[in-house]
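## Example pair
The file below holds two records. Each record gives the amino-acid sequence first, followed by its structure token line.
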Amino acid sequence: ESVACCELLIELGHPRQAIAALNGVIEREGASASILLMKGQALSNTKQLADAIICARSAELLEPENTDILGFLAQCYGLQGRHEEVLEYLQKLAELMTEDKRVRKLIPLTMNKVGRKEEALKLLFKLDYESTENDEDYDEILSHIADIALSLGKLDIAERYTEKVLERLDGKDADALLRTGHIKLLQGDWKGCLDNYEQFVNLYCKQHNGDISSALSQWNKDRDMLIEKGIKESDLLLIRDIIIADSDNSTQQAQS
């Protein structure tokens, strides 16, 4: 009954009261894995992530194959930006949940965050091979492959998978248009690059009800990657000016 009360307090958004109640349960009955996990969840809801992890790690010692505990620890480490630890717990989950595609997808995405890009790409290729075109997350998998391939300078792979996404979504994917612009730029195709950047800006503004500054902010996120791959900063500034000028001309034409 006390435990049910604690669960209700957490659900109703009263984690501090839940923590106090759970401390009482632990004093009276001892600390089970489920109680420690629940306390960890309540602590997490109050932004006490370090304490939440301590509780969950204690719960893990009691039940090392409890997937709820392992998943919670991966989530907490993710909130702390500790991606090596996230990867460790995702791999534990994958061993226990062999058919869970969501976990298997998160592993390469986390590998990418810790710089293990080649390994991440291989795992995503495997997911692509095992997926069907009707899978709900198929476009997402294709996009991740294209993104990582681009970051590795594998332009042929990035281009092929981006084209797949655009074909499947009738050209209505702003991220894919932006990526295509980057690919064309790295290939030295300025016309193709500017055409795709313009399409990206128009679609992004339409889908996000934003203006050109919000689209350019998104475009600018890849600036360091492009410079690292040999694009001059002066060229990027010129491209930015051309995008703005084209947008202004389009606006004036629409108003006239």
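Second record, same layout:
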Amino acid sequence: YAREKMDQALNELTALGDRSIWITEWNIDGDYSHYGNSLAQALFYADMAFTMAEHPRVTVSAVHNLLSMDAGYNVIRKIWPGFSPQINYHASRLMAPMMLPGNLAQPCALNAVDGLRAMAFLTPDQQTQHLYVINRSGTAMSLADFVGEASSVTVHTLGGDDLASGTGPNAARPNGNMGTNTQVVADIHGVQLPPYSIVHLSWAATPPEPTPLWASSFNGQDDCRLTATIGTDVVQTITGRCADVGGGKVITSSTSSFPSS
């Protein structure tokens, strides 16, 4: 549903115009007791998070539900006298950086691999690169063939080879200890993707090469003209005055349409 129907449903809402709509109680469809607190539920949650983060009409997303005494769709289970995190607690924490405003989305070739869904983006300050991968193929994979370079990659992994496993007992398994594993991998090509998993990778981004807003050249013998390059050459004639060249800057002696230095 998250991949095939949600986009269609959200696009149909455009006929309602500029209105805010609350779509409530989204979660995996099926018998409550069969999917609650299972890796299958976490993969569905991650798929929905991808779709909502990518869709321009979604502005706010909230989990359903946050806290209850149930052992199913809740994020945290109340067990007197304490609390027990359910599997969507771990999944939602993995998804948190994806939901921040201002992220700079990037294309990701991993989406062409059967069984994988991926999302890549830069943080607004362009300092950190993020890559999310959902593997629901049932087959362990790696990023050995990843096109690109990255080192000192922080990898958070939630997953394994048992779709029914959860953080504790559920309807399908009497025990479970599913949680997020974190490690730092020297090279991104060494990252492993368990058969059923959500993997979040992040690393320091390579800053873009600085480019000058404008550049200029001056030749005192060239009819006292100042040439500024802003994409293409623009020539300004400085009538009745010349410019002094010093310290690598061009300084005009009176008001100019270019910056003063």
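Notes on the second record: Residues 238-242, 244-261 have pLDDT under 50 and may be disordered. The first strand starts at residue 67 and ends at 68.
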